[in-house]
Each structure stands twice: as C-alpha cells, then as structure tokens.
Protein 1
Amino acid sequence: MTHLMNTYNRQPVAFIKGKGCTLTDTEGKTYLDALAGIAVNTLGHAHPALMAALNQQAGRLLHVSNIYRIPQQEALADTLTRLSGLSEAFICNSGLEANEAAIKLARFYGHQQKDVELPSIIVMEHAFHGRSLATLSATANKKAQAGFEPLVPGFIRVPYGDIAAVRQIAADNPNVVAVMLEVIQGEGGIHTVSDEYLRGLRSLCDTHGWLLLLDEVQCGMGRTGKWFAYQHAAIQPDVVTLAKGLGSGVPIGACLAGGRTAGLFGPGNHGSTFGGNPLACVAALTTIEVMEAHDLLSHATRIGDLLRRELSKALADTAGVVEIRGKGLMIGIELDRPCGALVKAALEAGLLINVTHESVIRLLPPLIFSEAEAHELTEKLIPLIQNFLKD
Ligand SMILES: Cc1ncc(COP(=O)(O)O)c(C=O)c1O
C-alpha cells in the first residue's frame, strides 16, 4: 500500500545503487541499463567526476535565489550558447518548463514584433512536449489530454514531416508566429524527419518571420552523436529546449534563444525559484566537460551504429519487425503489434528497456555505453523479441 498518487504504471522493482551502465535492485540482482532514466543518465550511474563535482558543490553552496548573480549559471549559459550557436539561455528544472518558456517567448514575440493578437504555434502529430497545461496542449496525445480540457488555445497541428501542410497553414493563417517540433520524436515512437524537411521549415520560418522552436529535451545533449539533433541538418533554430540528459540525473532544463528572440525577455517576464541553482548547473557543466574530454559524441555515433547494425542483421527479416530506426543512441524498434509485455520480460532477463507508442521498443542507453555492453544488450534483447513474435 502506497500513499503516492497513482500517476505511474510502475514496474515491480526498486533500485538501490548504480555503477556505470549497471543498476542493482533491493534483492541484489543487477540489470543492464539501456534506458538511462529515459535519456537522462548521460554519464551512467555514479560517474566519479560527476560525484566529485557534486560533493564539492554540495559542501559549499546548494542554492541561492535568482535575485543574485550565479556564476555557475552564467558559465553554463556561456557553454550552451557556444555549443548551440544561440545567444542566451534561461535555466529551469525540467523539459516542460523549458518548453513553457519557449511557448511564452513565441507568444511574446508575436505580440511585440509581429503585432499579432492571437499568436499561434504550429505543432506536430505524435508530438510530446510535457504535461503542464500549455505543453500538454502542444502535445498530440489525446489520451494524455483527456479530462483536462479546456486546453490552452493557440496550437495548430499538422502531420510530422509534411512541409506542404505547413505551407498551407502559412497561406491560411496570419496568426502563426512559430513552428515547434522535436527533431526526433521520442514518446511518439522514435520518428525522424529528413534534413530537407528541417531546412524547408527553416526557410518557411524565414519567409514568414516565424520562429523555429526545436524541442531537444530527449534528442539533444549528444544523444544522436551531435550536441543537438538539428546540427545533422546544418540549420540554426531560433529557440532550442533541453532537459533530460543535461544534468546527467540532476534535474535541470534550459531554453536557449537567439536570432529573432534574442533580448526579447526582460526582468519580470519569466522566472523560477529553483531554476539554475549552483548544484544543478555544476551537474550540467561537469556532464558537458566529461562529454568533451571523452568525445562521447563520436562514441554515441559509433555505438549507435553498431547497435542498429546488429539489430538489423538479426531482425530485419523477422516477421513482425516493422522498422529499426533512430540516430546515435536513440533507437526505436517498431513491431507490428503492442509489445509492452517485453518490458517485463527484459526486466526478468536483467535488462532495462522501454516501449513507447504501444509498439515501439525504445533504447536510450547512457552515452558511456561500451561496445561490450552493446553486445550484451543485443544478446539479451534479440531472443526476447524473437520469442515474443513467435506467439
Ligand atoms: C521531447 C520532450 N519534451 C518535453 C518533455 C517533458 O519533459 P519533463 O518530463 O522533464 O517535463 C519530454 C519528456 O519525456 C520529452 O520527451
């Protein structure tokens, strides 16, 4: 009997410690972590450099208000703008908060710069942007929205990857101020779009004076083998949101802005009590330092390619496997049927995976996942999938 609000379908397991890409439960059983807290534990568990930096910071200063200067937050803004090519950062605590800031920024931009009365944002089918009222309204999942109406107005939905649909909105709707999308959809089933589509969106945004808002909460921070997934298409967005992997397990999010949105917000326009406190910023700075020192971007590309190759070799001709897709260490294996049962089977086999969109097995291992761990993952997962599809 638990007094927790019943908001999650939890697996019947509790972990007490972790090291690298291995977690240990209360019974002493170990698990290979191919999920990383859903794209959170960039450096795996108990990474020595991160532990040392957090211990040191915790011993000095955990929190001060944003009414004072916070050098660690300024350093993080410097780093994130250097990596992204944007020019300023708002630091918060989570993905939905980062997206909430982006949505507010877009509306503010519409009122201030475009003189639009009812600013609207084009969003995508299968999108997931969070569970606050605004981000839930931007999200496409009808089940998640049900019962929370009225939703926040000002979102226009189009099919993901369909440039003609966006062009049509441009012709029909003078209230549009921005396009918001995940470069790779995570919760929606690891869907990717082409570089041409992203470049097409950039160009439409330029033509119409819209902002390009990219939600990289799940696909950003090196997961796809570049700091940000949009860098594969060599485009520059106006706003980028981050969270999940940014602090390697310490809650932190960021809304990065530049281009047309640079300098838009002033004091009083947005804020957060906890956002960007010294501890969280040290977590993010250290995560990035370790990623740079060990070239985890190339590593993510190499191990991701290896995993996709092994999975494709073993499963490509298996009846019931629809597609193996993704980039870097963001991998989806779509089956032709709901496969939530595989999560439990994997757990029993000592492997942590996830299923999203009912029929897509999702792999999001820590970026430190080794070649040996990649082999262990495929050796465990492939027979589970083959057995499951036999039934
Ligand atoms: C793309 C994307 N955006 C936003 C969010 C929301 O992040 P959070 O749960 O930190 O609010 C998620 C969470 O899964 C996500 O995948």
Note: DSSP finds twelve helices and 17 strands in the chain.
Protein 2
Amino acid sequence: MESTRRQFFAASAGALAVSQSLQGAGLTAKDVLERIQKNVGVPWRVETVDTIKSGSLDTPVTGIATTMMATLDVCQKAAAAGKNFVITHEPTFYAHEDKTDAIQDDPVYRFKQDFLNKNKMVVMRFHDHWHAHKPDGIFTGMTEQLGWTKNVDPQNARQFIFDGLSLSDLAGQIKGKLGIKAMRVVGDPKLPIRKVAANWGYAGGFRGFTRSDIDALIVGESREWEMVEYAADAITSGQKKALIILGHIPSEQGGMKYCAEWLKGFIPEVPIEFVPAVEPFWTPGA
Ligand SMILES: [Zn+2]
C-alpha cells in the first residue's frame, strides 16, 4: 500500500493531494503546504522563513486561520473556533528566524508552546512567498482594505495618487479605514498630499524618505533614530513632506485577510477564516 502510494505520489503529487482530501480522508498540514506551494506562482525558496514553526506536517487540519501575527491571543481564538492550522505573516516566537533554543525556559514562550502542543496546533509562516506572489498579496489586501484601488499610481503599484487633500485628512482616513487606535504622524497637518509611497511593514534605514517626488511615506514601523530623525530633519530643513507610521500590525493586516480569500480558491475541504491580530497599543485620552 505504502509503495503504491509513493509511486502515485511521485507521478502526480497534486492529484494525490486533491483526491485524498475530496475523499474526506483528512487534509493534512502537508497537503495545505503543498497546495500553497503549487498555487503561489513563484518557485518555493530553499532559504526562507516560510516554514512550520510549531506542530507536525502530518497533523489533520480541522480548519485554517490566517493572521498577520500569531500572537497567543490569535492562537487561542483560532483554537476556540476549531481552526488548528494558523498561517501567520510575521514570527511566532519574537524573532525573524523563530529560533527558540535560547528561550526554552522563558515563561512566555513556554506558555505559548504548551498551549499549541496541548491543542495539537500547527503554525506556519507565510511571509516571503506572499510578498513574492504577483501581485504582492500584502499590497493587494492593503489597497483593498483602504479602498484605494482607484488611487493606485499606474506607474507604480506601491504608490497612490490623491487630489491634494490635507495630511490631517489623509491620516484620518487611514485611521478610520484600518481601525487604528495609536498611529503617529510626522509633518504639517495642513500639508497638501498628491503622491504617497507605501512601505507596509518594517522600513529599515531612511532611504525610503529621501525621494523628492513624494509628499508622504507610509510605513508600518521604523526606527525613531533613523527614519523618524531623518524625516524631522528633512522637514526642519524646509522640505514639504510627511511620514505616517501605522504600527506594524495594521500596516499589513489587510494582506492576510485577503490571504484567507485566496486560500479558499484551492482549499475547499476545511473552513478558512481570517483572525485579526489585535493592535497592541493604546494612547491615553484616545
Ligand atoms: Zn510583510
């Protein structure tokens, strides 16, 4: 039986995955991973952070939760909703590579890992390949969530064109559409905005702000002693520009909401749901 299966597998991996699940024989985490690899439209990288962070590929999948960040809160909500496979854009264990050797005795890591083990959950990261998907899955989802499809610059999908609304109005519109509690803005609130560049997620260094053809740069997060200091100096030196800092989670969350819809197109056997990661910040008086 096993050798017959293996031959069949070698002959047609995709067909086997589909036939197994259509029989209801139990979609495994491995089946889901293989379907993503087959449908993402770019070759799967050898060096990638898109790997299994917890659990085993043999696990039968009861449901899939996509999320921007697999926080403990998200994992608990996914488990409560009967979804034991979490697909996360950002790390699970507090570092880009999710290395856990040095934190085995850390109480927070331990609590989370024990919860995942006890509930037989699988967590997989889907970062590199979702960005490599054409078009970039995060950009597609964020553009949709903001309702900015009509504003996309025909020259560059990472830029948006506006009619000169004020920085204050633009920031307010973003805050409302993304439901952000604690976003931060650098620049004159009355500054008219015509061209905006977006760097969803983390923006390292300050080069993203050096372009003279944009009125505002939107980022998820950046270092206050790099990009933010450069932006402050650019404005003090007379440049008419602005920096809008959303927070990392709201700056990419729409992309993982869209990911749930994308997965439904080729994984019909189990329920798939987007579980939002909660914005961690609040501000007094807000
Ligand atoms: Zn990202």
Note: The pocket of zinc ion is lined by residues 89, 127, 131, 138, 201, 252 (CB under 6 Å).
